[in-house]
Design brief:
It is built from 10 helices and 18 strands. Helix 4 packs across helix 10 and helix 6 packs across helix 8.
């Protein structure tokens, strides 16, 4: 990052999970003006930026924040007088686990936001503010979905992190965690490391991209002599048992290619999540199912597997939807939780304008339409109101 640009950065937010740390921060482009509706509001143009780190490499994250002076983009903590009272919005279990570390290394306090509330807030922000954010992916076809803001709720949010949470969202601030599963991204990485010796999530995903799960998975055709079980709607290529061929192949782990193992593992977890998600949607009569979390990573194979599972179990009545910024939902929700408070309670630091705090909730956070297709983790051009 250009050092000259660091003075234009404001309001960092973090989502510190069990596997990954996600960061969102606003970077102003130096262009701001008074809102024509009020001479007390300044509109600052810039972009939301995104970054991620493995939680086990939290020191790299701390160094990234320090090097780019992001820790100076916090706000003065309530009742805080000293330098170490600068606070930054944070969510996820790591906001509690690593609070002392952030204070020791960067001199900042983590202003903790509820994890579920942040996830829902991040999704609602994206769906209401960013055009062409939601899309479906099935049989190699990606289609963007236009969602009427007046018909947004209810929906099921399936957030795939280390584990999986399934949240029924009925409105702004109205949600309930209705289910979940412990078989999520952490399971994929944990088993993947044991079975393939991969050291990172990205390495394991890349490995799976080159694999063939049919080498290890037992298919319906393997049981029925290569034919479909058409009476109950199962094709010969449907998976009857994940890793099932390992039972009778007479092989040891080292006899299998690691990419095939990774592919089978990815398929198993994705199928399981898709099925559980649909059953919960069915339970509450929800037709709209949104999948988020860094497990997906925009990987076509993962999205297609989840979509096929939802399509199969719903008999085509429900569709899986995905988000371009799926991995940063919690961090975005934490970011939008910065509220306007009285001048004495909350003050900005390292701002481009002399205003107490940015207001990035509701209609005061206005989006400038993206002019090109984002590559999932790219920036979002936007403007914010500083009041």
């Amino acid at each position: 990052m250009d050092p000259a640009a660091t003075s234009q950065i404001s309001h960092l937010a973090l989502d510190i999970g069990g596997t990954l740390i996600k960061l969102v921060y606003f970077s102003a482009n130096g262009d701001h003006c008074e809102d024509s509706r009020s001479n007390e509001i300044s509109v600052v143009h810039g972009k939301l930026c995104f970054a991620k780190f493995e939680t086990k490499k939290i020191d790299d994250c701390l160094e990234f924040i320090r090097f780019n002076i992001l820790h100076h983009s916090g706000v003065q903590h309530q009742n805080g007088m000293a330098h170490d009272k600068l606070s930054v919005k944070a969510t996820g279990g790591g906001a509690f686990k690593f609070a002392d570390l952030f204070k020791e290394k960067l001199g900042i306090l983590l202003d903790k936001e509820d994890e579920m509330c942040s996830l829902v807030g991040g999704v609602n922000f994206l769906l209401k503010t960013v055009p062409r954010e939601a899309f479906t992916y099935l049989d190699g076809q990606k289609e963007f979905v236009e969602i009427d803001h007046n018909d947004l709720y209810p929906y099921l949010l399936v957030n795939i992190g280390s584990g999986v949470s399934m949240i029924k969202v009925d409105g702004d601030g109205k949600y309930e965690r209705i289910s979940g599963t412990s078989l999520g991204g952490g399971t994929f990485l944990g088993l993947g490391k044991l079975l393939t010796k991969c050291e990172s999530f990205d390495e394991l995903l890349e490995l799976s991209h080159h694999g063939n799960n049919r080498v290890i998975d037992m298919l319906v055709g393997d049981i029925y002599g290569g034919t479909d079980y058409s009476k109950i709607g199962l094709s010969s290529t449907a998976i009857a048992s994940s890793f099932g061929k390992a039972i009778s192949d007479g092989k040891e782990l080292e006899d299998y290619q690691p990419e095939d193992v990774a592919r089978s593992l990815l398929r198993m977890i994705s199928n399981n999540i898709g099925q559980i998600a649909y059953l919960n949607a069915l339970r509450f009569g929800l037709k709209r199912i949104l999948f988020g979390g860094f497990f997906i990573r925009g990987l076509e194979y993962t999205m297609d597997t989840i979509s096929v599972a939802v399509h199969f179990w719903s008999r085509g009545e429900a569709k899986a939807m995905f988000l371009r910024h799926e991995g940063f939902l919690g961090a975005l929700g934490a970011f939008t939780s910065y509220k306007t408070q009285s001048h004495n309670d909350l003050k900005s630091n390292q701002h481009t304008v002399q205003r107490p705090i940015l207001n990035c909730s509701g209609d005061n956070f206005r989006h400038i339409p993206v002019t090109s297709n984002l590559n999932d983790s790219e920036t979002i051009e936007c403007s914010i109101s500083l009041v």
